[in-house]
């Protein structure tokens, strides 16, 4: 009777241990999911604020006027337009090829210019 009782408790202990391990692993997985979800939610809140700010900037009368004036090149009556042409590329000087060393020595010894 004592052996049956001890076997029963061992089986019960093993069952409870496996259950505890399983629950603990699920708890860790759920906590990781919660952290990821929370981080994603915070990132989306920041993005939402950013987009709302951009929307307000794009719809402000001053920004709309600035965009229209820049794209169409319009001026107000009291303004003067100064148009500066793009700079033309300056020609690069022609690079003379270097004289080989043996010709330099020849010129030094025989004074050929």
Question: What keywords describe this structure?
Answer:
113 residues, 3 helices, 71% helix
How big a fraction of the residues is strand?
Answer: under 5%
Outline: flat
- Would you tell me the structural class of the helices and strands? mainly alpha
Q: Give the end-to-end Cα distance, rounded to a whole number of Å.
A: 122 Å
Q: Tell me roughly what share of residues is in helical segments.
A: over 70%
Sketch the topology as an H/E string, one letter per element: HHH
The count of helical stretches stands at 3
Could you state the oligomeric state of the chains shown? single chain
Largest beta sheet, briefly? Answer: none
What's the pLDDT, averaged over the residues? 89
Poorly predicted runs are none
Integer-rounded radius of gyration:
41 Å
Q: How many beta-strand segments?
A: 0
